[in-house]
Structures are given as structure tokens and as C-alpha cells.
Amino acid sequence: MKAKNLAVLGLQWGDEGKGKIVNFLSDRADAACRYQGGHNAGHTLIVEGKKLVLHLLPSSICHQNASSLIGKGVVISCEALFAEIEEIEPIANGILDRLKISPACTLIQPYHILLDQLKEKSNSFTTIGTTLRGIGPAYEDKVSRKAIRIIDTLSETKLNSKLEETLSFYNFLFKEYFGEKELDFNEVKDKNLEYGNKLSPLLADVSNEIFTMNKKNKRVLFEGAQGALLDVDQGTYPFVTASNCSPAGIASGAGCGPLDVGYILGVVKAYVTRVGEGPMPTEIEGSLGEEIAKKGGEVGATTGRPRRCGWFDAVSVKRIIQSNSVSALCLTKIDVLDGLENIKICTGYDEDESKKAFAECMELEDVNPSYIEIEGWPEPTAGINNYDDFPQKAKNFVEKIAEVCGVPVDIISTGPDDASTILINQEI
Ligand code: IMP
Fold first, then answer.
1. What count of Cα atoms within 13 Å lies in the side-chain half-sphere of residue 375?
2. Virtual CA dihedral for 157, 158, 162, 167, nearest 10 degrees?
3. Residue 241 Cβ contacting ligand 1 at under 6 Å
4. Least packed by Cβ within 10 Å: which of 124, 241, 291, 324?
5. In angstroms, what is the span from residue 313 Cα to ligand 1's centroid?
6. Residue whose C-alpha is closest to residue 5's, from 231, 249, 204, 265
7. Whole-number pLDDT of residue 3
8. Which residues are known catalytic residues?
């Protein structure tokens, strides 16, 4: 039996190919909902032969029969949102009729972007390799209770008092700590009033929308951004993003009950990639890593930075499955491994008991990964959409991933378009 709702999330460091899968599964849902992150995400999909890169809009946006929801856990750059709407509208047609945004979303402000950039280039802070889009500082404001939320931009009086408090804090920081120019209050205020004007027709109580849809037996698909290893609580801290991108963030970010999620599909690449700084135990140094990166087109969809490549890390994936009730896996980009003589899967981090698992607060820099090796397959798998047509050795790889991770592989993706998808579990 199909679950009431479903979630599609990355289990690695992002860029697993979630966008394509959400677009593919949107036919089976009545709405898709982004619940965390912001325009740091880069979800690539192919619609009618055209490549689209979405940063803020849910990847269901081209589906005329599905609503697209943005929950309160998302931080919104109004400029980026409307630039994206303008770019995608000719293909998606009628976006403004289908898009609903929670008024509780935090707005990314000019001072968030400036602070993100100043911190990343300052020698006094650890360089994280952020997308420089103000995501971290916007979440900092949210938890320190001084965020400007969309709702605050609808009343000038309310905005004035909140902005005075917040901007005086930032201007002190810019001037006294960083030795930079202060931002002009009226300029920032006018921008915010404009944000309010533009966003107000799109506002809706997203939490209640989900509840009402579910009451009518309609399905919602929750779309994660980034990946579980970038989750601020479950990832490789401090080299993480500022939100809960694992399933744990769905309930708070979308506004549904934790038991309402139903089926959780963890998207994993057949290898791993990471963009930005931070440990990566299975990183492949040298020409093989470069070859995989080239074949896989491993360049950041948001920042254009090269992605580092490594072997599939079953230790971290197993840990994320264990702590996030992941139902099944979707394995993407398996075709990138076509033609390799041998393929490795990391199944352990060290002989030393204390370093064996992907444990809380574990220092990943000094682990010594152990691997199993699977024979590669010379035949191409790109574009195959029937599991029976898969080369036996590629099947062995898929089955080994399922075995070491302890959950089934329900979907395999063999290329960027919808046709290159194998739906193993028809019940999704
Ligand atoms: P931030 O999210 O811009 O604060 O960046 C924090 C870290 O998350 C950096 O290492 C980024 O490269 C990484 N990151 C943020 N968004 C994505 C994404 O969508 N895919 C992959 N990495 C991301």
C-alpha cells in the first residue's frame, strides 16, 4: 500500500540527484514541499528536453496538477525567488497559481550575504566553503530570534521596530569588528517593503495546507535540499549547512507531524561527492577521481565549483539510515561507473573500535577506511530503464549496496532524464 506522504532526501553531502527524482515522483503526489535550506540548493532536472536548475522552487514546479509549497523552515531570498520564477515560467506556466509560501519563512537580508562573505574571507573564522548566499547568517538570526520573517514585511510599523533592532546590531559588527561600511536603514527597509508586496499574494498557512490535503487523502512529497551529511546536527560539523536537511527537519520545517511522513526515500550517488571544505574519508585522489568527476559532470550546480569525488561510503549512509527511519534507497549516477575495472565500497572506518562507526563527534580526518571491491562491468548502463536489462555485474553492485546498507534499492537512475529511471518498487 502506498504511504500517505513521501520524502525524497539526499543521504550524502548533497548533489545526489534529488531534483530529477522529485520531478519524476511528482506525478504520484498532489504537492511537493521544500522544508529547509534556501537558494544554496541546486536541483537539476530535464523537462521536455530542457535542463533546468532550481534553487528555491520545489522540483514539482513543472507539474500542472501539483501544488508547490515552501515551508517555514526555508530561508528565502526574495530576489533569487523572483529571478527563478521569471526564468522558469516559460516552461512551467502558471507558477504563481501553484506556489504557496509560509509567511513564517525567514528572509535573507543584504546584511546576511555581507556577513557570510566577510566571515569566509576572514582569517579569524574557519573557512567552510559556503555558497556565500547568506544562508548561515539568516538561520543564525532565526535562532537568535531577530530574523525578519515575511510576515514582518507586511506592516511598516512592525518592520521599522524589528529592523532597527537587528540592523543596529549588524552595523555595529560591520563597523567595529570588520572595519566595513554600515548599511543604510532606509535602503534595507525599502527593499523589505518591496519583498512584502511581491510575496503577499503567495502566502499561505503551509502547515494547514498539508493537513487539509492529507485529510482529503492527497499526498505530499517532501523535498530535501543539500544532504544528511551537511545537516547541522547530524552532519560533519562544522563543515555543514545551517539547517536540518535530514528527515528530522521535515516536521519542523514543513509543519506536519513526524508520523505523517510515511515513506522516506534516501537518494545516494553510486559514489560520493563533496563541494566545499570538510573531511571526506573515501576521497579518491589523482587521475581516477578526476576521471569520475569529468564523466559525472561534477561541478556545483549553484556555485560552479568542482566537486571532490570518493568511493561509496556505506558507513556514513548506514548511520544516517539508522537515525532517520529511511525506508529505501534511490541509487543515482551508476552509469558514471560504467567501464571501471573495479569499484570500491567503504564498509569500515578503522580497526580501532572507537573509530569504527560514523559516531557522534567523530573526527573523520584520521580514519583509515576499509573497502570491499566489486568487479566492474564493461557494458554501458546509461539510459537503461528496465532492471532485467542491467548487466549482471552492475546488478551485483546494486545488490551489494542494498545488503551493506540494510535497506532495499527502490529506484535506480541511469541518466538525467525521466526516461532513464528504473522503478523497482512500483508501490512508491
Ligand atoms: P551554505 O549552505 O552556503 O552555508 O554552505 C555550507 C556548506 O554546505 C558548504 O560546504 C556548501 O558547499 C554546502 N552546500 C550548501 N548547499 C549545497 C548543495 O545544494 N549541494 C552541495 N553542497 C551544498
1. 8
2. -40
3. yes
4. 124
5. 19
6. 265
7. 76
8. 15, 43
Which of 36, 128, 141, 241 for a ligand 1 pocket mutation test, highest count of atoms within 8 Å of Cβ?
A: 241
Domain end (from 263, 284, 305) = 263
d(CA 34, CA 223): 5
- Whole-structure pTM value: 0.96
* Residue 23 pLDDT: 92
Residues 272 and 372 in one domain: yes
339 ligand 1 Cβ < 6 A:
no
Q: Which of 106, 231, 275, 307 to mutate to test the pocket of ligand 1 (most atoms within 8 A of CB)?
A: 275
Can you tell me the distance from the alpha carbon of 34 to that of 225, in angstroms, rounded to the nearest whole number? 8
Higher local confidence (pLDDT), 3 or 299? 299
Task: Return phi, psi of residue 426, to 5°.
Answer: -70, -10
Q: What is the pLDDT of residue 352?
A: 79
Q: The CATH number of the domain where 47 resides is what?
A: 3.40.440.10
**Does 1 fall in a domain?**
no
Domain final residue pick, 199, 229, 252 = 199
**178 and 249 assigned to the same domain:** no
User: CA-to-CA distance for 169 and 195, rounded, in angstroms?
Assistant: 22
Same domain, 188 and 220: no
Tell whether the model's pLDDT for residue 2 goes beyond 90: no
Domain span at residue 279?
266-423
Q: How far is the CA of 131 from the centre of ligand 1 (A)?
A: 6
Question: If you take atom 5 of ligand 1, which residue's CA is the nearest one?
Answer: 130
Residue 256 and residue 207 in contact, taking contact as beta carbons nearer than 8 Å = yes
Distance 302 CA to ligand 1 centre (A): 9
- Cβ–Cβ under 8 Å, residues 326 and 261: no
Residue 276, C-alpha cell as written in the block: 566545499
The burial of 136, by beta-carbon neighbours within 10 Å (0-12 exposed, 13-18 middle, 19 or more buried), is given as buried
Cis peptide, bond prior to residue 238, ω within 30 of zero: yes
Cell of 202: 503567495
Q: How far is the CA of 246 from the centre of ligand 1 (A)?
A: 14
- CB neighbours (10 Å) of residue 404? 16
Q: What is the pLDDT of residues 214-238, one digit of tens each?
A: 999 999 999 999 999 999 999 999 9
Residue of minimum CA distance from atom 19 in ligand 1: 41
134 Cβ closer than 6 Å to some ligand 1 atom: no
Mean pLDDT of 282-297: 94
Q: Is the pLDDT of residue 1 over 80?
A: no
